[in-house]
Every structure is written in C-alpha cells, then in structure tokens.
Specification:
Blueprint (H helix, E strand, L loop, with lengths): L10 H40 L6 H17 L4 H26 L5 H23 L13 E5 L2 E4 H12 L1
Antiparallel strand pairs: 1-2
Helix pairs in contact: 1-5, 2-3, 2-4
Length: 168
C-alpha cells in the first residue's frame, strides 16, 4: 500500500506568517535602534562637554536599575522604586560629571578617561557588594499587546520605547 504524499503548507500561508514575523521584528528593531540613538547622543554630548567618553555610562544605568529592582523586591511600590532608581542614576551621573568638569578640566584625556574607567569599576564593585552576583527579577511594569495590524502584533513596550525616543 502506497503512503500518501506529505502535505506542505500552502505557499501563501508560509510567506504570510514569515512576513508578519519579519515586520514585527523590524518594528521592534526600530524601537531598540531608537534607544541606541539616545545612548549615542548622550555619549556625544558628554564627550563634547568634558572632552572624554564616559566609560561608566552603562554602569550608571545598571546601578540605578539595580537600586530600583532591590527596592521593588523589598515591597516598595514599583513606580516609586523606578523613580528612586532614576534619581540615584542621575545623582551618580551628575557626581561623575562634576568631578570631570570641575576638578579635571585641564587634565589630559588619559587622566579623565582613567577617572571614568575607575568609576565604572567602582560602580560594578559596589553593585556586587550591595546587590550580590545573582540576577534580580523585576516585575514587568508594562506588558502585553498594544495593537495588532494585519496579524502583526505591536507590544506596549515597543510603542512606549518608540514614542519616548521620538520625543528626545
């Protein structure tokens, strides 16, 4: 007895599913690209102000995020934890900027770069000491589908990121 031929998905359904996934990925990529653009603008602004690239910029954001995650794990309301984490990140950034702009304005680029690398290492070390080395869970503040167009799902996070990067 002959076996029936395998049934393959129809040509249209195969490409429409892939097309939707590609479009969904492209839209999410635009949102992340906007975040990278903001990071690039902030690094350029910092480099123009103090004539050095701040190597600790990512660690400053990480430290503020760890503060927010820690506070949220200690039953502080999430919006308040996010606000405190943001304020801590801003305060650390201002402190490093003041050190570079006020105490080292005439120093060599190497000396100012060394200060930013030292602050990077300090923030990473402080994070290990204060928060440990295990990943911290943080409940999603925004999740779910914002809307769907033609089978392409656009998440609320993508809408918020795209909107906030367009504002800046």
């Amino acid at each position: 007895m002959a076996r029936p031929a395998p049934r393959w998905p129809s040509h249209n359904s195969l490409y429409s599913t892939k097309g939707r996934l590609v479009l969904q990925g492209a839209i999410a990529g635009l949102a992340i690209g906007g975040v990278y653009a903001i990071i690039a603008v902030s690094m350029t602004l910092m480099a123009q102000l103090v004539r050095v690239i701040n190597f600790s910029q990512a660690a400053i954001g990480m430290f503020g995020a760890f503060v927010a995650a820690y506070l949220a794990s200690e039953r502080v309301p999430v919006p308040l934890a996010l606000l405190i984490g943001l304020v801590v990140g801003i305060a650390v950034s201002v402190l490093i900027g003041m050190i570079l702009a006020r105490w080292l304005p005439e120093s060599s680029i190497s000396a100012r770069s060394a200060v930013t690398v030292a602050s990077l290492l300090l923030l990473i070390s402080m994070s290990y000491i204060l928060f440990g080395t295990r990943p911290m869970n943080f409940r999603a503040v925004v999740s779910g589908t914002a809307f769907e167009v033609g089978g392409v799902v656009i998440s609320q996070v993508t809408v918020i990121i795209t909107g906030s990067t367009d504002c800046c």
